[in-house]
Automatic annotation (TrEMBL):
Domain HDOD, chain residue ranges per copy: 13-208
Domain of life assignment: Bacteria
Pfam families assigned: HDOD (PF08668)
Organism: Thiorhodococcus mannitoliphagus
Protein name: HDOD domain-containing protein
InterPro entries referenced in this protein's UniProt entry, alphabetically: HDOD, RNase_Y/CdgJ
């Protein structure tokens, strides 16, 4: 089995809704106007409401409230609009999974924490595209969902290797399948026609040194995923103060990124409220973080 074969096998399960596909096509057409995009979005009231809530959230920190979809498009631009719509549709795509397969609320809490962390880190590490990396952060673990839903029996062996032999999850996946969730997630993003600047960091975020292209973006995503782990545990424990071990790990990551250690150590607390706000918008009705 290969990542490509597994993604092709799940093609009908992992198909974007029509609204996302229509927006994608329109955004790629040079003659498209904001009003054209607004017409598509307002046909989906749920998507319209969540888009406006996201644009008015702390993620964008707008000085004045944004009241209409057209206004939102004008303020954030076409590419950011595409990424927000993809984020919303991707969350919806997997919301039917049972808790026995995977705890989706915890999964998306981690993804949203990674997305917001990577957006902040991109600003600290030079002129990198924080909006595009936001999407890479949100979707960096999608390969796990394919494993959980399509390979449940074989994945039980991965869990056994993790619990009984102490292997890291990705090492256990490599042993059982010959590839890991990062490889699988990157293949899915390729299948969805995402640019290399998104799928390549996802493919290499577990080991950025192996990235032939987009190495610094993979390093940023690697650090953001670690911060997301810290934030996820902290939110569930109602505390955002990193432990001593986490501070040591963050100092090492800061050195790799050329950042001041305090900037990375303080980041989990600085972005905590943004994470909770975006989580409540993208995963409405959750009781996980109250």
């Amino acid at each position: 089995m290969t990542p490509e074969a597994l993604v092709n096998q799940t093609d009908t399960l992992l198909s974007f809704p029509d609204v996302a596909l229509r927006l994608n096509r329109l955004i790629d057409e040079p003659a498209t106007r904001p009003s054209d995009l607004a017409e598509v979005i307002i046909c989906d009231p749920g998507l319209s409401a969540r888009l406006l809530r996201l644009v008015n959230s702390a993620l964008y920190a707008r000085p004045q409230p944004v009241a209409t979809v057209s206004q939102a498009i004008g303020l954030i631009g076409y590419r950011a609009l595409r990424e927000l719509v993809i984020a919303t549709c991707t969350v919806d795509m997997f919301k039917g999974l049972s808790r026995q397969q995977v705890d989706m609320e915890r999964f998306w809490l981690h993804g949203i924490a990674c997305a917001i962390a990577v957006r902040h880190l991109a600003g600290h590490c030079g002129p990198h595209d924080g909006e595009r990396l936001f999407l890479a952060g949100l979707l960096h673990s999608l390969g796990k969902l394919i494993f959980f839903t399509q390979c449940a029996d074989a994945y039980a062996e991965v869990l056994r290797l993790v619990e009984q032999d102490g292997l890291a999850v990705d090492k256990a996946e490599q042993r059982v399948f010959g590839f890991d969730y990062a490889d699988l997630g990157a293949e899915l993003l390729k299948h969805w026609d995402f640019p290399e600047s998104i799928w390549s960091p996802v493919a290499h975020h577990l080991d950025p040194a192996k990235a032939a292209e987009h190495r610094i973006e993979a390093e940023i995503l690697h650090a953001a995923a670690r911060i997301a782990q810290i934030v996820q545990v902290a939110v569930l424990a109602d505390s955002v103060v990193p432990t001593e071990d986490n501070c040591e790990a963050l100092c090492k990551l800061a050195e790799r990124l050329g950042m001041e250690p305090d900037a990375l150590i303080d980041l989990p607390g600085a972005i905590n409220l943004q994470i909770l706000e975006v989580f409540e918008i993208l995963v409405p009705g959750s009781t996980l973080v109250y």
